[in-house]
Specification:
Chain B: Pfam families: SBP_bac_1. Chain B: This is Sugar ABC transporter substrate-binding protein. Chain B: InterPro entries: Bact_solute-bd_prot1, SBP. Chain B: Keywords: Signal. The complex is a heterodimer of chains A (about 300) and B (about 450). Chain A is mostly helical and about 300 residues long. Helix content of chain A is about 70%, strand content about 0%. In chain A, α5 crosses α12 and α11 runs antiparallel to α14. The longest helix of chain A is centred in the first third of the chain and has 35 residues. Chain B has about 450 residues and is of the alpha/beta class. Chain B folds into 2 domains: about 210 residues, 3-Layer(aba) Sandwich (D-Maltodextrin-Binding Protein, domain 2), CATH 3.40.190; about 210 residues, D-Maltodextrin-Binding Protein, domain 2. Helix content of chain B is about 50%, strand content about 15%. In chain B, α3 runs antiparallel to α16, α17 crosses α18 and α20 packs antiparallel against α22. The chains are: A mainly alpha (about 300), B alpha/beta (about 450). At the A-B interface, α1 and α13 of A face α1, α4, α13, α20 and α22 of B.
């Protein structure tokens, strides 16, 4: 054991003092509840009477629960549509906002602004915009183009795509991360490519995309985790309907916990979701190895 | 402890421990301090106690609620009532959290939430009020014993009725006048007013269906699919479900159920006199469909008498069409006290105040100021006169509609079956395609049956 100097010890002490608030907060409000939910998932607990140990029966029931599969498939469907949509639109917007034009910072602010509005408010806004009877969108479609607009959130086929469309106002932070990555790209590579006669699109495909691939991966994983946890839109706009088509996994979990008061069952649902997200993250990290380039790769 | 470092380390760990215990204490229980407060209050009888009264947010009731708090505090200077208003759709969730943390409100109406009385009763969240009622409460003298008995479970009272909403057929007088049709009857026993004649009337009232801007529908209702079957003498669940609170195996495929649902589907798709599922969903965003003025006849609960006051058209109430075995839902809501209430005596005093039918008492003013159907029979006469005047109907005719509804009524499903909110949601979701005309009634009922069975509601 190496001898520690007084300064090192003092520094260590400061570390513990400064970390203490976070540490205590974590144990009380995050770490503790997570552990407790794991324990609860093996019990039957209705909030009032004390939890009753039931072994793995919650998990067994879950695998027989039709709504469990329905909610899982709806959530995966949403994720498969929403993640590529968000990545693509925010990357395109980021590339456009990276051009040096007049009013650039104003535009950047405008495109980011919706992200600071609460999800509930944004959901209300969209639900009015897309109301099939009284909404602006369908009125414009009908009055200007004579098209009878779709049912959006009220029809089984269009409810999930409508929610994907809503991500237009929620992709601000993804866009900002892309923008930061784009700004750190070395200009000399582009100059060299221009001299070689590469077109704008080739430059984007051959230089930009490979260089920012770690950022694309990061945004994809974060976006995927967020998409699998989608809740607000269903809670505010559709209540899981119509015909269970927006009955997302976390919405079902919320229902079992706070409407049916089955905390044990809900905890089991939460842990299954955790394992699913964990597994999907590992798969994406592992599966993307071939396509993601790190500048200072140790290979 | 000569070494300053050791001393510091010691101080630091004390500090850490201290802060940790403070936080833990904060997230733990705040009861201890309350307990001592109660003890103090009891010992010297002067200390103020606070009881919490929780109600769903409703602008129509706010003035009445404030008046109740202030009049009670005036007559009970040692009690402070804290009124908490929770938005309706968050009521269950907020209540669950409060109950779990040991901070359940003292006085509340368990039927305000979708989960309903049965759920909270089964959970053990409600206090047995029998000892209090036995001790004598003059406020309950004129209460119909049948109403009190709704919330009597295994010989014990768990609630004191505050309101007894019935179900009526509301009709838009302006639309009837424009079509030149006489208003529907107020006599529930008039067999010529049945679903066939209702359909004929609805056809005359409907026009431009399909054109979102001009369409008028002859008929719609706020009934659940199960309640629709009641109107035809059917029922989706077994009788035991309503007495034991346990849903058990549903009984969906009865011919009467199918007849009732098919009739409602035909109103939408065959006769085009009722809005389809998507139209209902879209207009729900605006609030009550009847208030849009685009619905000629609308079957709904007695709260409409209060909330339709703001309608910009004239309306009235009539009998629900006749059918052999017809039953309509009645919605009797009780005041209950939490099983864990720390001040049950004061809470009971407050319940008595709320249930008092005397002028300026809670029940009187609820009828008079808010306009809701009283539970106390002593108030009926006053209420008939008042409502008749407000909707320009003869008081006797209004009385006939209301009494007919009570005679043909049965207690609402969500008050009696545990976790009915989940059953209802399952019902609405599974039958959406049926209302959309994309699935047959029997297929919809089959899929509903599967979903209900896989929910494990009896756990």
């Amino acid at each position: 054991m190496s001898k520690r100097t007084l300064a090192m010890k003092r520094e260590e002490r400061s570390f513990w003092i400064f970390i203490a608030p976070w540490f205590i907060g974590f144990i009380c409000f995050t770490g503790g509840p997570i552990l407790i939910s794991l324990l609860l998932s093996f019990t039957e607990y209705n909030v009032i009477s004390s939890p009753k140990f039931t072994g793995i029966s919650n998990y067994l029931l879950l695998f027989k629960d039709r709504l469990f599969y329905k909610s899982l498939s709806v959530t995966l469907y949403y994720t498969v549509l929403a993640v590529p949509f968000t990545i693509l639109t925010s990357l395109v917007i980021a590339v456009l906002l990276n051009h040096r034009i007049k009013g650039q910072s104003l535009l950047r602010t405008l495109y980011y602004a919706p992200s600071i509005v609460s999800g509930v408010a944004v959901s209300f806004l969209w639900s009015w915009l897309l109301n099939p009877q009284f909404g602006v969108v369908n009125s414009v479609l009908y009055d200007c183009f004579g098209i009878q607009g779709p049912g959006w959130f009220t029809s089984s086929g269009t409810v999930v795509p409508s929610m994907v469309l809503m991500q237009l106002t929620a992709s601000g932070s993804t866009m900002v991360i892309f923008l930061a990555a784009l700004q750190s790209l070395p200009a000399d590579l582009y100059e060299a490519a221009s001299i070689e006669g590469a077109s704008g699109f080739t430059k984007f495909r051959k230089i930009t995309v490979p260089l920012i691939s770690p950022v694309i991966l990061f945004n994809t994983i974060i976006g995927m985790i967020g998409a699998l946890q989608i809740f607000t839109e269903a809670y505010v706009i559709t209540k899981g309907g119509p015909d269970w088509n927006s009955y997302f996994y976390v919405y079902y979990l919320f229902d079992t916990a706070f409407k049916q008061f089955r905390m044990g069952y809900a905890s089991a649902q939460a842990w299954i979701l955790f394992l699913l997200i964990f597994a999907l993250t590992l798969v994406s990290l592992w599966g993307s190895k071939k396509y993601v380039h790190y500048e200072y790769d140790s290979k | 402890m000569k070494n300053p470092l050791t001393k510091n380390r010691f101080l630091m760990s004390v500090l850490l421990l201290f802060s940790l215990s403070t936080v833990l204490a904060a997230c733990g229980s705040a009861d201890d301090s309350n307990h001592t407060a109660t003890a103090d209050a009891k010992s010297n009888g002067k200390e103020k106690v606070e009881i919490v009264w929780m109600m769903a947010t409703d602008p129509d009731k706010k003035a009445w609620q404030d008046a109740m708090v202030s009049t009670f505090e005036e007559s009970h200077p040692n009690v402070k009532v804290r009124l908490e208003n929770i938005p309706y759709d968050q009521f269950d969730q907020k209540l669950a959290t409060l109950i779990a943390s040991g901070n359940a409100p003292d006085v509340w109406n368990p039927n305000q939430a979708d989960s309903g009385f049965a759920t909270y009763m089964k959970m053990g969240a409600l206090k047995d009020l029998t000892p209090y009622i036995d001790k004598g409460a003059p406020e309950l003298k004129t209460m119909d014993p049948n109403l009190l008995n709704i919330y009597k479970i295994d010989g014990k009272y768990y609630g004191v009725p505050l309101v007894s909403n019935a179900t009526y057929l509301y009709y838009n007088k302006d639309l009837f006048d424009a079509a030149g049709i006489p208003y529907p009857t107020t006599d529930w026993d008039d067999k010529s007013w049945n679903f066939d004649t209702m359909l004929e009337t609805a056809k005359k009232l409907s026009h431009d269906v399909g054109d979102a801007r001009k369409q008028v529908f002859g008929f719609s209702s706020a009934l659940s699919a199960n309640e629709m079957t009641w109107l035809f003498g059917g029922d989706m669940f077994k009788p035991e479900a309503y007495t034991t609170g346990v849903l058990g195996e549903p009984d969906l495929m009865k011919p009467l159920n199918i007849e009732a649902l098919q009739f409602n589907v035909d109103l939408i798709h065959k006769y085009k006199v009722a809005p389809d599922a998507e139209t209902v969903a879209a207009s729900a965003q605006l609030g009550d469909p009847f208030l849009t003025g685009k619905v000629g006849m609308y079957i709904s609960g007695g709260w409409g008498l209060g909330s339709y006051k703001k309608a910009d058209f004239k309306w009235g109430v009539a009998a629900v069409p006749y059918h052999e075995g017809r039953k309509v839902p009645l919605y009797v809501d009780p005041w209950s006290i939490s099983a864990t209430s720390k001040h049950p005596d004061e809470a009971w005093e407050f319940v008595r105040h709320l249930a008092n039918p005397a002028e300026d008492g809670g029940a009187y003013r609820y009828m008079n100021d808010v306009g809701r159907t009283p539970a106390d029979s002593g108030l009926f006469k006053l209420w008939y006169d008042k409502m008749g005047g407000e909707i320009s109907m003869d008081a006797a005719a209004f009385k006939q509609v209301h009494e007919g509804s009570i005679q043909n009524g049965r207690e609402a499903e969500n008050h009696l079956i545990v976790k009915f909110n989940t059953v209802l949601e399952t019902m609405n979701q599974s039958l959406y395609q049926v209302w959309g005309g994309k699935e047959s009634v029997t297929d919809g009922l089959k899929s509903l049956n599967e979903k209900l069975l896989s929910l494990n509601l009896n756990q």
